[in-house]
Design goal:
Elements lengths: L1 H9 L1 H22 L7 H39 E4 L2 H11 L4 E5 L4 H18 L3 E8 L4 H14 L12 H21 L3 E8 L5 E6 L2 E6 L6 E5 L3 H16 L1 E3 L15 H10 L10 H12 L7
Parallel strand pairs: 2-3, 3-4
Antiparallel strand pairs: 1-7, 2-5, 4-8, 5-6, 6-7
Helix pairs in contact: 2-3, 5-7, 6-7, 7-10
Amino acid sequence: MRRFGTWLRQNADGFLALVIAGTIGLLGLLEVFGPDLLGTGEEGGEAVDAAILLVLALLAATLLRDRRHQARAVADANAVRLVHGSDIARLHADAHHGTDLWMFKGGTGSYLRAVTIKECVANARRAKRPMQMQIEIIDPTDDALCTEYAKYRSSLSPGPDGTGETWTAERARREAFATVLAACWYRERFTFLRVDLALSAVMTTFRWDLSSRWVIMTQEDPSAFAVQFQRDTPHYRSYDRELVASFDQARRVDVALVRDLRLSEEPSVDEARTLFTTLQLPLPESFTDDDVSDTLSRALQPKNPYG
C-alpha cells in the first residue's frame, strides 16, 4: 500500500487523466447502450468536450514534467563525468581561463609548475584581476616521505616518465623544492597573485585541482581517467572542504617572509639558498651548487610530465 501511495504521488497527473478518460469512455458506452447519463443534446456534447480538454491538459502537463525530469537527468550526468587522455589537458586549459582561484593538492606539483601556475598568472594578468592559489605538496625535508612517494611513482611506471626521468627520492625532493621556489618567483612578478603554501606529511595517490568552475581529480598514472565535478554539485563543495581541512593540518610555509627578497629573472644559486633559508625551509646540507642549479631549472624551466 505504501508503494502504491508513493507511485500515486509521483504520477498523480497521469493517473487523474486516466481516471477521467476512463470515466468519460464508460459514460459514453452507457449513453450508447443505456440511459443518457451525460445529458441530452448540446449539453451532453459540451460535457464530453470539456472532459476531453481536461484530459488533454493533464496529458500536456505530464509531458512537460517528464521533459523537465529528462533535462535534470542530463544536467546531473554532465555535472560529474569521466575524462580520458588528451581531454584531461584540454579540461585543465579550460579551467585556467576565467578563474580567480586555484586549489591544488598532490605530490610534488610537477604539472602545476609546468602548466597551471604559468597559465593562471598569464590569464589573470591579461584580465587585470587578482589570482589566489593554495598549494599543498609533500614535504621535501621528510626523507622517508620522499622515498615512499618515489616508490609509489616507480611502481606505476618503472621506466622514465614524460620528462624522460625515473622516480627517485632525490628527484621527489628536488621537484617539491622547485614548486616552492616557482610559487615565490611568480608571486614576486605578479603583484595580485596570492600564494598559500603547505607541506604535507602524508602522500596522496590522487591529485586535486579546484578552480572557480569545477574540480578535476586525477591520478598520478597518466593512463588513468580523471573525474570532473561541476561547481553546482555537492561533490564540489565536499572537495572544497576537504582541501581546506587538509591544508590546515599541513605544515605552513610563510611566503610573506620573503616579501622583501628579490629574485632575478634567472635566480642564482645563492639567491635560491637565501630564499629557502628565509622561508625557514633550508636545503639539505648535502645539496651541492649543481643540485641547487638543477632545482632552479625544474622550477623555472619545467618539463610537462604529461605532454
